[in-house]
Specification:
There is one protein chain. This protein has about 325 residues and is an alpha+beta fold. The chain has a single domain, classed as 2,3-Dihydroxybiphenyl 1,2-Dioxygenase, domain 1 (Roll). About 15% of the residues lie in helices and about 35% in strands. Strand 6 and strand 7 form a beta hairpin. The longest helix has 13 residues. It is globular. It starts with 7 loop residues before the first strand and ends in a 14-residue tail after the last helix.
Length: about 325
């Protein structure tokens, strides 16, 4: 059986202050905070999910914000750049918006496309690209109208310490297609229309170090629970150590580290973020898994209060 992921499901990163995180990704970038929960393995830390209006697969950037966390060093064994896709004609809007809020950016080009590259307050490397493909976002917030809004992921640039092996995994395990090489990068494409374009360094990169401003893992899509279980078998058959299937409440997950050092996850599209909140209520309150509900009071006391707010300058 041939396995072909549709592309990126979500990307998870480390940052420092939770309110700064909300202000940047919801306030400035206009993404919707679709879920406010905790790190199930460390309940004194938020797990915040930002995406399109429903947090659909291929749109969600998630964060573990921890005040006082050390700053990491972006490098090998990580996602180097997270790519967001916007509608064709929207880059000029985003240039103006980044300028308005004092975010330095650089316009770059590769594989015939123009990109705006910039960093969030913790140094996480981001970029915007225009593309026709991908359903438009139906979410507007602050100064970001829906017709200029981020659709979801365009893809990512992977930084591998062993790029030949990582490329083999992309092609022969994850089912991506190699479509080009240019200026030290190799481009792969997945089957879907969001989170589907992956660039990777052709030559080995030195190791990065984890911490705020770095990506923890990149998650790939599995279409169904049955498909997900088969993905786990497939990963193991290809020589990787895969975790058991883990219930993350909003998707099921398995994890494995590919040979270039990057932590891969494979996640189910279902059940999604409306399993425990109605559409109009998404991200409005702290959602806890059942086993943490008895400790809700203590958990809430240990978390910094956050709010989604319109930034000064958009009011």
């Amino acid at each position: 059986m041939n396995y072909h992921t549709a592309g990126i499901h979500h990307i998870t990163s480390f940052v420092r202050h939770p309110q700064d995180n909300v202000d940047f990704y919801a306030g400035l970038l206009g993404l919707r905070l679709v879920k406010k929960t905790i790190n199930f393995d460390a309940p004194d830390v938020y797990h915040l999910y930002f995406g399109n209006e429903i947090g659909g697969p291929g749109t969600v950037m998630t964060f573990f914000p921890s005040e006082g966390a050390r700053i990491g060093q972006v490098g090998g064994g990580q996602v180097g750049y997270t790519t967001f896709v916007v509608p064709v004609g929207a880059l000029s809007f985003w240039e103006e918006r980044l300028t308005k809020f004092g975010v330095a950016f650089e316009r770059t080009a590769r594989f015939g496309e123009s990109y705006l590259q910039f960093k969030d307050g913790d140094g996480l490397q981001l970029e915007l690209v225009e593309r026709e493909e991908g359903a438009p976002s139906q979410w507007s917030f602050g100064g970001v109208p829906a017709d200029k809004a981020i659709k979801g992921f365009g893809g990512a640039i992977l930084y591998s310490t062993r790029p030949a092996q990582t490329q083999d995994t992309l092609a022969n395990v994850m089912g991506l297609e190699k479509i080009g090489e240019e200026n030290g990068l190799v481009r792969y494409r997945a089957a879907g229309d969001l989170g589907n374009v992956i660039d990777i360094n052709a030559e080995p990169m030195p190791w990065g170090t984890g911490g705020a401003g770095t990506v923890h893992h990149i998650a790939w899509r599995a279409a169904s629970y049955e498909d997900h279980a088969k993905w786990r078998e497939h990963v193991i058959e290809n020589g990787f150590l895969a975790t058991d299937i883990i219930d993350r409440q909003y998707f099921n997950a398995i994890y494995f580290r590919e040979a270039g050092g990057i932590l891969f996850e494979i996640a189910t599209d279902a059940p999604g973020f409306q399993r425990d909140e109605e559409f109009d209520e998404l991200g409005g309150k702290l959602m806890l898994p059942s086993w943490y509900e008895p400790q809700r009071g203590i958990i809430e006391q240990n978390l910094f209060p956050i709010e989604v707010r319109v930034l000064e300058g958009d009011e």
